[in-house]
């Protein structure tokens, strides 16, 4: 699977790239079996480690957020089958992500299964990178539909080109991103970015097995699940090599937080943030 020049230009203009039928029917069934098994084994625990902040700081109302989706983070750390699945897919997923972002090496920041249960709440407009423990204009995620994602069951929505707005604000704010919590009000992000009030939005329904790559500073969200069925997706959040710790906990344990030094510590440990793809020179 390879990208065209047009694909790359479109991604950099719009902040996202959709690949229909990214997984073959056989691969889709494999992903569903492995991911759903890992989610079941994790039971009610969002994270592997009890010292990670379970009251996720990205939200403003835990009761509301818990009914946005079932979220199980870093399944690769608890299930060897998930780890092998992601690393074996890395030659494709990582290569695409690296080419879209024009970087030579890309690592896993974390993975997460995101399952909108029947009648789950919508996911408010947000951008990802302000939540993470590093800051980069080249962070990128892949969102793989394990079920059909429809207008009725909570497909993704994007604000095409909004990554250029957040990037301009980043440079104007001394290379920082403003963190916008995910709460009940879908439009909270417009308080920080009022210039987006008239911005066009696009719904992104996807068939199971299709994939969406989107920039870490693209504004996106998802609809409510208005059906009695689940809508499942598997995502991988990725970062360039040698990212520097910015002081935020996100998925880090309390032990890691005591060991890392803001502005000094580098995320380049293959055991903690495995390489998905590295360009050969």
TrEMBL record:
Pfam families hit by this protein: PhyH
Domain of life: Eukaryota
Required co-factors: Fe cation
Gene3D superfamilies: q2cbj1_9rhob like domain
Protein name: Phytanoyl-CoA dioxygenase
Protein source organism: Didymodactylos carnosus
Organism ancestry: Eukaryota, Metazoa, Spiralia, Gnathifera, Rotifera
């Amino acid at each position: 699977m390879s990208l065209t020049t047009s694909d790359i230009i479109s991604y950099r203009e719009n902040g996202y790239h959709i690949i229909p039928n990214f997984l073959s029917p056989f691969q889709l069934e494999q992903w569903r079996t492995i991911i759903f098994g890992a989610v079941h084994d994790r039971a009610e625990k969002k994270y592997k480690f009890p010292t990670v902040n379970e009251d996720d700081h990205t939200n403003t109302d835990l009761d509301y957020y818990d009914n946005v989706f079932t979220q199980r983070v870093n399944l690769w750390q608890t299930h060897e089958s998930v780890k092998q699945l992601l690393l074996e897919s890395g030659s494709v997923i990582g290569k695409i992500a690296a080419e879209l972002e024009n970087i030579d090496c890309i690592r896993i920041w974390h993975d997460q299964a995101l399952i909108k249960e029947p009648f789950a709440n919508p996911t408010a407009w947000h951008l990802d990178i302000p939540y993470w423990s590093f800051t980069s204009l080249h962070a990128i995620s892949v969102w793989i539909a394990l079920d059909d994602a429809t207008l009725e069951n909570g497909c993704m929505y994007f604000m095409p080109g909004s990554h250029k707005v957040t990037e301009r604000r980043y440079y104007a704010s001394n290379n920082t991103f403003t963190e916008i919590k995910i709460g009940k009000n879908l439009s909270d992000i417009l308080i920080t970015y009022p210039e987006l009030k008239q911005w066009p939005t696009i719904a992104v329904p996807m068939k199971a097995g299709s994939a969406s790559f989107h920039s870490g500073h693209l504004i996106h969200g998802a609809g409510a699940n208005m059906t009695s069925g689940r809508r499942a997706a598997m995502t991988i959040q990725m970062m360039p090599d040698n990212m520097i710790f910015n002081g935020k906990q996100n998925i880090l344990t309390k032990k890691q937080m005591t060991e890392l030094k803001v502005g000094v510590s580098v995320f380049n440990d293959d055991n903690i943030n495995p390489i998905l793809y590295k360009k050969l020179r």
